[in-house]
Amino acid sequence: MMDPITKYILEGYLFSDRNVSINLSSFESGKENKLIIIGVPGSGKTSLGRYLAKKYKVQEFISDDSWPNTKKGLLSNKKTILEGAGFVWLVHEPKWKDIVISKSIIFLGMSAIKAGLRADVRDGMLPGTVKDKRHTFHFIRSNFKDFQKRLNTLRKDALRQPGIDVKEYKIPSEVNAHLTGRM
Known about the structure:
Helix content is 49%, strand content 13%. It is an alpha/beta fold.
């Protein structure tokens, strides 16, 4: 039997969670005009967002963790896809958290190691090299535990909404090929 701390470390750092969509059919049908993609840095949020923006012919694609741009996108009447790791910081902002979890969401699950390596490659670094203190092992050591805790809180709150449509989300093969080609 594995103790809970070891299990948490192995699951979060080595193994990926499942990708989950919440109320995606509402966005696809046009009932909802916002789709939010949330995941750890390097999980493929931007690549997936760009692909889905073309597929659904959205009016606006926001790939920006700055709060003013995200807020503007959430409040606009345009059909919009928003992606960013920054949504996890809303867990302590009840008004905005409630707005976010009421929208269509895709939560990307990914291990810290795989996401960190992808982020390094995306940023043009060899795995393990240092660039502005943002590299795989720095991210894992300093940010992942708090980030994962906030991400899990946001995911649980979203899943507690009454009458939601939750499905496992399969990354489209075109996006997966792009992401795996980076490594």
